[in-house]
Amino acid sequence: MSFDKEKMLQLCNDWCKNTLMETLEIEYIDAGDDFLTAKMPVNSRVHQPVGLLHGGATVALAESVGSAASFLFINAEKQEVRGIEISANHVRSTREGTVFCTAKIIHKGASIHLWEIKIVDEDDRLISVCKLTNMILSRRK
Q1: How far apart are CA 119 and CA 125, in angstroms?
Q2: What's the mean per-residue pLDDT of the chain?
Q3: What is the rounded distance in angstroms from the CA atom of residue 84 to the CA atom of residue 132?
Q4: What does the alpha-carbon distance between residue 39 and residue 68 come to, in Å, rounded to a whole number?
Q5: Which entry of 6, 25, 63, 85 is annotated as an active-site residue?
Q6: Smallest Cα–Cα separation from 64: which of 6, 13, 120?
Q7: Is 25 an annotated catalytic residue?
Q8: The whole model's pTM is what?
Q9: pLDDT for the residue numbered 140
Q10: Which residues of 76-108 are buried (b: 16+ CB within 10 A; e: fewer)?
Q11: pLDDT digit string, tens, across residues 53-111
Q12: What CA–CA distance (Å, rounded) separates 10 from 49?
């Protein structure tokens, strides 16, 4: 697959304006033929009441990155992406810093994309691992 990495990252970051992704301060930082990576700060905006990274914020990050990653493989003028299932295992907590989220393609079908998504902290320690299934639909006119 051939794509312009900087153009893809700019497009993903532009999509964040006035959305949950902007609220969570998600920033797309790297892309390749089979992956997309973003980062998110861990602060009071994404904490649960006891001061830890909220699992829901982690899942929102994972779905945001996995859904955007599916755009690497579709014709956006003719197709749309819809997340249809996500699962998450939270294996470590964190209170501050930055988390990094990378979605890697497991299955790239004509109508289904399956992503493995890992969220790690600044020391590359696994925070969560997620699996996201996206449906690829024809764009309605």
Answers
A1: 8
A2: 95
A3: 8
A4: 14
A5: 63
A6: 13
A7: no
A8: 0.94
A9: 84
A10: eeebebebeebebebeebbeeeebbbbbebeeb
A11: 999 999 999 999 999 999 888 998 999 999 999 999 999 999 999 999 999 999 999 99
A12: 34
